[in-house]
Amino acid sequence: MGAEVVFDPGEVDLVGKIRELTEGKGVTCALDCSGKIQSQRVCIDATRRRGRVAFVGESNDALPIRVSPDLIRKGLTLVGSWLYNSLDYPKVMQIIQQSPLIDLLVSHVMPMSEIRDGFELLASGQCAKVVVEPWN
């Protein structure tokens, strides 16, 4: 999909590897879509001073955040986003429809009658995005 470097969040010393690629500074921005505590922690630890971290992957687990070293001393901006503004919807849809990567992002298209299968597929982690066609 065009990434220059890809890491497995389970790699040993992942933060050290990221810092090595960024001349010891860390990344400017980090985004976690997985909701996995290990990945969220890497985002905080691998982001440089005055960097930005966004969490959009939902999790029921507790991420330990040390306010002083993680946020205050680094000047880190931490943002969580669950939904988007409905006024942004047409623009978001336009970007998605025009993306040359859409076939990589959407792995399954299913009729509404198979929505249970779609949720099971999502829960299995064996897919990308599942699109439900509500009128089928």
Could you walk me through the main structural features you see in this protein, from its secondary elements to its overall organization?
The chain is 35% helix and 22% strand. It has 136 residues and is an alpha/beta fold. The strands form 2 sheets. A 3-stranded parallel beta sheet has the order 1-2-3, covered by helices on one side. Strands 4-5 form a two-stranded parallel ribbon.
Please provide a brief summary of the model.
The protein has about 140 residues and is of the alpha/beta class. The chain is about 35% helix and about 20% strand.
> Unreliable segments (pLDDT under 50, ≥5 consecutive)?
none
**Oligomerization:** single chain
Helix content: 25-40%
Over all CA atoms, what is the radius of gyration?
18 Å
Secondary-structure element order, N to C: HEHEHEHHEHE
Choose one word for the global shape. Answer: elongated
Question: What's the count of strands?
Answer: 5
Specify the CATH architecture of the largest domain. 3-Layer(aba) Sandwich
Tell me the number of structural domains: 2
Mean pLDDT across the residues is 90
List the total number of helices: 6
State the CATH class of the largest domain: Alpha Beta
Intertermini distance = 30 Å
Q: What share of the residues does DSSP label as strand, in percent?
A: 15-25%
- Structural category is alpha/beta
CATH superfamily of the largest domain: NAD(P)-binding Rossmann-like Domain
Sheet with most strands: 3 strands, parallel
